[in-house]
Amino acid sequence: AVLPQNYEDGEPEPPQIKKEPEPSQIKEEPEEPEPSQIIEEPGELFISQDENQLDLKHMKTHTGEKPFSCKECDKSFSFLPDLKAHMRTHTGEKPFSCKECDKSFSYLSALKTHTRIHTGEKPFPCTKCKKTFNQTSSLKSHMRTHTSEKPFSCKHCDKCFRSVFSVKTHMRTHTGDKPFSCMECGKSFCFNSFLKTHMRTHTGEKPFCCKECDKCFRHVSHLKAHMRTHTGEKPFSCEECDTRFRFLSGLKSHTRNYTGEKILSCIECDKSFSYSTCLKSHMRTHRGDRPFSCKECDKCFRHVSDLKAHMITHTGKKLFSCTKCKKKKNQTSHLKIHTRTHTREKPFSCQESEKNF
């Protein structure tokens, strides 16, 4: 049979003879054409009809020929459909819409991947474990957990990552970008996971519960740290001595005994402190706070240690003994004054006279 000539494209094509194929020559068509042979536009499909033309197109994969250039950027492509699809990154066009939700995509392949979120389909299994994934990129990234490969490195520090996405996310720690904002208080965060954790301060949610007691926590890290109170584990050790700690904060606080570092400064005066408890206690001298009150009398104290020492005056106990004689005192300050009667020390001098006391 002779096919009708097509004059719509200009010059007529020579007539082609359509031959009925032999049964042995019939090939099953693939379920989906290759991306380079498709124009990803609704209702439009382009597939090479001539075997010679198909061979020429295939040869570009070997020659590296990329005759189709983007006018907006410096990228080039081997096939026109790839260029057309790329142009959507500049125009922002998203012609492929999800029927289940309101999301749209620039590429048909991206829509197909997205629909697996709704169907639950995970066609890409890991050969090392039983996990499955809804896209090949997720599988490739997962496989690096078995190989320990981290091919993507940060340009600003020496950290390496398993996926490009992880690098992009990490870069926010350098740029200070905080795209995730709290709708309740306005705080912004670098990572979505940080925002989710923060939201629990508003909702009061504590989803991480201890199996040994009834305590619950907002963060899984807080639960892990709490579990050490049950197991007795102390994984953090001091390099200067053999003291070990359950929490990293305890170790950092302890090391200041050796370094003498005072990182906490008073905003009222020029004093600095190594520990937050010392700073809080010091701030009471400025505010006049005396939060520790005696239950036996009306006296109040700035420090809990002062209250404990005071309580001895009500019990009548004298716990502090003089090493020179048999006298006992109920406070260390009283014992110090007493010992000067043996040492004859007089550290306090009068400014008006030359007498010492």
From TrEMBL:
It is found in: Nucleus. Residues 68-95, 96-123, 124-151, 152-179, 180-207, 208-235, 236-263, 264-291, 292-319, 320-347 form the C2H2-type domain. This is C2H2-type domain-containing protein. GO terms for biological process: positive regulation of transcription by RNA polymerase II; regulation of transcription by RNA polymerase II. Residues 16-28 have a biased composition (Basic and acidic residues). Its main location: nucleus. Residues 1-38 are annotated as: Disordered. GO terms for molecular function: DNA-binding transcription factor activity, RNA polymerase II-specific; RNA polymerase II cis-regulatory region sequence-specific DNA binding; zinc ion binding. PROSITE patterns: ZINC_FINGER_C2H2_1 (PS00028), ZINC_FINGER_C2H2_2 (PS50157). It comes from the Eukaryota. One of its GO terms (cellular component) is nucleus. May be involved in transcriptional regulation. Gene3D superfamilies: Classic Zinc Finger. Belongs to the krueppel C2H2-type zinc-finger protein family. Keywords: DNA-binding, Metal-binding, Nucleus, Repeat, Transcription, Transcription regulation, Zinc, Zinc-finger.
